[in-house]
UniProtKB/TrEMBL annotation, chain A:
Pfam families: ABC_tran. Residues 11-243 form the ABC transporter domain. The lineage of its organism: Bacteria, Pseudomonadati, Pseudomonadota, Alphaproteobacteria, Sphingomonadales. GO terms for molecular function: ATP binding; ATP hydrolysis activity; transmembrane transporter activity. Coiled coil: none annotated. This is Putative ABC transport system ATP-binding protein.
TrEMBL record, chain B:
It holds the Pfam family MacB_PCD. One of its GO terms (molecular function) is transmembrane transporter activity. This is Putative ABC transport system permease protein. Residues 20-240 form the MacB-like periplasmic core domain. It comes from Sphingomonas rubra. One of its GO terms (cellular component) is plasma membrane. The keyword Ligase does not apply. InterPro entries: ABC3_permease_C (IPR003838), MacB_PCD (IPR025857), Macrolide_Exporter_MacB (IPR050250). The chain crosses the membrane at residues 21-41, 278-302, 323-353, 365-384. Residues 281-394 form the ABC3 transporter permease C-terminal domain. Coiled coil: none annotated. Signal peptide: none annotated. It is found in: Cell membrane.
């Protein structure tokens, strides 16, 4: 998993800023974020609305680029990569889970989960096997032929997680994965993420507003006004977290 | 890589059946309309030209009066007579033959069947000016022509109606108040802008004059012109001769008119060509309308597509791959629609050709042009919205409203 020295973090942000818009409507969402994330960690990102959590996650997920600053992944400078290289990085190492699920409509759960493998060029058999495995992992193998419209919110999010982990990524990024779910479904999702983190060694980064969800994490990063306010290292998962 | 793209494109078509169907429909209508209309327009032009060439080339029609439909006012101009026919035939250089015509209508009766038809009295010069082969029998002899014998050649329509398509040569039928020997049947000329040319009985002019019109008047002369001579010159010489013979003083208008059939052909050809162009323009509009339909469908689905593109990019697709998929999808739909349109057009053409009595034609050029244009429309409107979406950041594409 961790190819480089143990001391080297998997992800390192240095003085990252992000400016949206230009001219009079210009808005600085990130004002110099410094953040290190160790391989295998389970990180919860918290903070008030508008503090830059999603912006940071999108940058970490290579879905967006910082305006300035350094972003290192396994010691490589990501901010210097072009669009296509970032896409290949997403394909190889990253899985992303959104608050709004973002599944392809009118497409079965299995085909949704297969999609990243299609772009990777796997043959049909390998795709089927890996996708069914991922669905099994999230407990939805019996629902493989259902379209998103035929699944509940919690099930859709689990399909989205299956799609994110089907390529065996190093990092799973989840922006408010339980934001659209009730607390019971939320706990199921958190248990799934914890299991992926523990047994598959996937580094999990998750944005949440709820201390109950953050309680599953090992590290909690608090954002405020486009900056990291403080980082809370926790001795025991499940221990209460202050908002 | 391409196989994957094809799989993705076909899946997308299958998943958005309504959208795909509407896209195809626009192209089908566009291609079908253009090909059908232009092909039928060209077929009509061809049919008209065929009809006109049946009038014979290099033929002048000479009639008393100042022109078509110029009635009233002043005394009726005198008709022509046999002396005029001979004068033109003998005195004007470049005239191959002059066929006088005296026409009337009568009911033909044979064994209980009757049919009202027109009777055309003429001389054998008629067949020199406007060759008309026989399907059976013989032409009349010079002796029969001189004597004004009651012999006749019948057109195909008359044969169909009186003889039910059976043998007519050698029979004797009733024509008005006389009985008449059928000595030959004329080959089929077909329907045309001038009505049914086969609905006619042709007889020696003397027989018609004596037994039907009761005068020696000639209402029309068909003048054949040697192709080595200019019809304009011959026309002018005939005019001079007739003015002289009819004693028209200088400064007075002709009391007869000479009509060049080549002129009719040019006019009618010009008209049908114009019609074809108008029809093609209308068809072109329908192609554009079809294109706008495609564009609308694509634009309506652009939000859905943009989000889809965002998802694909987010899970690691390279923009190029996503675009290729949309391109393949657009090309597949456009080609499918184009092919269906072409087939549909052929079906409609085959159904309409017998109704319109025009010859069947196949014009590869228009098929190709219509297909190409519609394919381009489909590809442009299917591909360019996708290209814009793929240029976005994945996160912006996902947020697209
Ligand atoms: N695409 C954008 N264009 C302009 N401004 C943006 C854009 N995205 C985010 N912002 C602004 O940047 C700031 C940070 O946004 P961000 O989405 O990172 O907040 P957040 O911490 O995720 O908030 P929330 O908890 O509400 O999701 C906000 O003030 C937001 O208005
Ligand atoms: Mg957010």
């Amino acid at each position: 998993m961790t190819g480089t020295l143990m001391a080297d973090p998997l992800i390192r942000l240095r003085d990252v800023t992000k400016v949206y818009g230009s001219g009079a409507t210009q808005f600085q969402a990130l004002k110099g974020v410094d953040l290190d994330i160790k391989a295998g960690d389970f990180v919860a990102v918290m903070g008030p609305s508008g503090s830059g959590k999603s912006t940071t996650m999108n940058i970490l997920g290579c879905l967006d680029v910082p305006s300035a600053g350094e972003f290192l992944f396994r010691g490589h400078h990501i901010e210097r990569l072009d669009r296509d290289q970032r896409a290949l990085l997403r394909r190889r190492y990253l899985g992303f889970v959104f608050q709004g699920f973002n599944l392809l409509s009118r497409t079965s759960a299995l085909e949704n989960v297969e999609l990243p493998l299609l772009y990777r060029g796997d043959d049909k058999r390998a795709r089927r096997e890996a996708a069914m495995g991922a669905l099994e992992k999230v407990g939805l193998d019996r629902w493989w032929d259902h379209t998103p419209a035929e699944l509940s919110g919690g099930q859709q999010q689990r399909v989205a997680i299956a799609r994110a982990i089907v390529t065996s990524p190093d990092v799973l990024l989840a922006d408010e994965p339980t934001g659209n779910l009730d607390s019971e479904r939320s706990v199921e999702i958190m248990e799934l993420l914890t299991d992926l983190n523990r047994t598959n060694g996937i580094t999990v980064l998750m944005v949440t507003h709820e201390p109950d969800m953050a309680a599953f994490a090992r590290t909690v990063v608090h954002f405020k006004d486009g900056l990291v306010e403080r980082i809370e290292a926790r001795h025991r998962q499940g221990q209460a977290v202050e908002a | 890589m391409f196989g994957t793209t094809l799989v993705l494109a076909l899946r997308s078509i299958r998943r958005h059946l309504l959208r795909s169907f509407l896209t195809i429909l626009g192209i089908v209508i566009g291609v079908g309309a253009v090909v059908t209309m232009v092909t039928l327009g060209k077929a009509t032009t061809a049919a008209v030209q065929q009809q006109i060439s049946a009038l014979g080339t290099n033929v002048l029609q000479v009639r008393p009066g100042q022109g078509f439909g110029r009635g009233g006012g002043g005394p009726r101009p005198p008709e022509f007579d046999q002396a005029d026919v001979e004068a033109i035939a003998n005195q004007v250089a470049g005239v191959t033959a002059v066929a006088p015509q005296a026409s009337t209508t009568a009911t033909a009766i044979y064994e209980g069947a009757n049919w009202s038809t027109s009777i055309n009295g003429t001389t054998s010069a008629f067949l020199t000016v406007q060759p008309w082969p026989l399907s059976a029998g013989r032409y009349w002899t010079a002796a029969e022509q001189e004597a004004g014998k009651a012999v006749c050649l019948i057109g195909n329509t008359v044969r169909q109606n009186l003889y039910r398509g059976g043998d007519a040569v050698g029979t004797r039928m009733r024509l008005g108040n006389i009985s008449c020997d059928v000595i030959g049947t004329l080959s089929k000329r077909g329907q045309g802008g001038f009505g049914d040319q086969d609905d006619v009985v042709v007889m020696p002019i003397k027989a018609v004059q004596r037994r039907f019109t009761g005068s020696r008047d000639i209402r029309l002369m068909l003048v054949g012109v040697d192709s080595a001579y200019s019809t304009d010159t011959v026309q002018a010489q005939i005019a001079d001769l007739l003015r002289q013979r009819r004693r028209i003083t200088d400064g007075k208008d002709d009391d007869f008119n000479i009509f060049d059939t080549a002129q009719i052909r040019d006019t009618l050809t010009g008209t049908t060509t114009l019609l074809t162009r108008i029809v093609a323009a209308v068809a072109g509009i329908s192609l554009v309308v079809g294109g706008i339909g495609i564009m609308n469908i694509m634009l309506v689905s652009v939000t859905e597509r943009t989000r889809e593109i965002g998802i694909r990019l987010a899970i690691g697709a390279v923009a190029r791959e996503v675009l290729l998929q949309f391109l393949v999808e657009a090309v597949a739909l456009s080609c499918l629609g184009g092919i269906i349109g072409l087939i549909l057009a052929q079906g409609v053409i085959l159904a309409l050709v017998p109704l319109m009595q025009v010859p069947w034609t196949f014009d590869p050029q228009i098929n190709l042009i219509a297909f190409a244009i519609s394919a381009v429309i489909g590809v442009v409107f299917g591909y360019f919205p996708a290209r814009r979406a793929a240029a976005l950041n994945p996160i912006d594409a996902l947020r697209h409203e």
